[in-house]
Design goal:
The chain has 158 residues and is α+β, with helices and mostly antiparallel strands. Helix content is 41%, strand content 12%.
């Protein structure tokens, strides 16, 4: 009976222990998961360690990718493209079809719905993209574009 109680206690303790999410070793910003294939495709120089990576989207941080285990960090100077969150308004918005955020904003400023965003949506639906290896976040750019446009619109009147 005593052994059963010890096992139950160990089980309950294990379940209540919560691991804190991995954060960037430089900025302490919580990272977002990205595949090793994305990191390898966009890193210049030797291939990074084959392990689990996260992307740091803090615009002021020099770190772009860091490994979950803390053994590997990839800085701005060692990547081909920066995520939109780090590049700002002048940055690449869509890496598959080579669109800049400023081009999308120009269309909207001229009072038109963005044909660029619609063309990205169409091409994505038709599976003509390769976001997992072209976009530094390893995800489709449309979510990042939407956030960046909302941010640009909110700061316009300020």
């Amino acid at each position: 009976m005593e052994q059963a109680n010890e096992l139950a206690a160990a089980c309950c303790v294990e379940k209540t222990q919560v691991r804190s999410p991995p954060v960037c070793p430089n900025s302490a910003t919580r990272g977002r998961s990205v595949s090793w294939e994305t990191v390898a495709a966009l890193t210049s120089g030797p291939l990074p360690l084959k392990t689990a990576y996260l992307v740091c989207e803090d615009p002021d941080c020099d770190v772009v990718y860091f490994s979950v285990d803390g053994r590997s960090v990839v800085n701005r100077s060692n990547v081909r493209h920066l995520p939109l969150a780090k590049a700002g308004l002048q940055g690449q918005a869509c890496f598959c079809f080579d669109h800049r955020l400023t081009d999308i904003l120009d269309e909207i400023d001229r009072g038109r719905q963005s044909r660029i965003v619609e063309s990205i949506r169409t091409a994505t639906r038709e599976k003509k993209c390769a976001c997992s290896v072209r976009n530094p976040t390893g995800r489709c750019c449309l979510g990042d574009i939407k956030k960046a446009l909302a941010h640009a619109n909110s700061t316009k009147g300020a």
